[in-house]
Amino acid sequence: MQKLNLTQIKKDLNDLPGWDFTNESIHKDLSFDSYLDGIAFVSQLAIKAEEHNHHPDLTVGWCKVGVTFTTHDAGGVTANDIIMAKEVEQILNE
N or C: which end of the chain has fewer CB within 10 A? Predict the structure, then answer.
C-alpha cells in the first residue's frame, strides 16, 4: 500500500470531522457517556479492524478513547487508514 501525500490526506480528512494528521498518522479523541460505552466502542472497532486486517493504536481512559491509524510498513498514512477512520465514524453514527 502506497503512502498518501499531504494533499490527499488533507482532502480525505475534510470528510472526517475531528481527525488530525500528525507524526505520519491520523488521530481522533473520542468522548463517551460512560467508561463501558468507550469499551463497547473499542470492541466494535476491534471487529472491524480484524475484518480489514488493519489495526489502530488505542488509548483508553475514563470515558475517553484515542484512536490512531498509520501504516507502519508504508511509513505513514495510506488509503487503509482513511478507510478505517471512516469505519470509526460509521460505528459512532450507528
Answer: C
Which structural domains are found in the chain, ordered by start?
Answer: 6-10+20-92 (3.30.1360.20)
Cα–Cα distance list, 72 to 4, 6, 81, 89 (Å): 13, 17, 11, 22
63: cell is: 470515558
Span 58-94, pLDDT tens digits:
999 999 999 999 999 999 999 999 999 999 999 999 8
DSSP-derived 3-state class of residue 30: strand
Q: Is 12 left (phi over 0), alpha (psi -120 to 50) or beta?
A: alpha
Q: What is the CA radius of gyration of the chain?
A: 13
Instruction: Give the separation between CA 53 and CA 22, rounded to whole angstroms.
Output: 23
2-33 pLDDT, tens digit per residue, is: 999 999 999 999 999 999 999 999 999 999 99
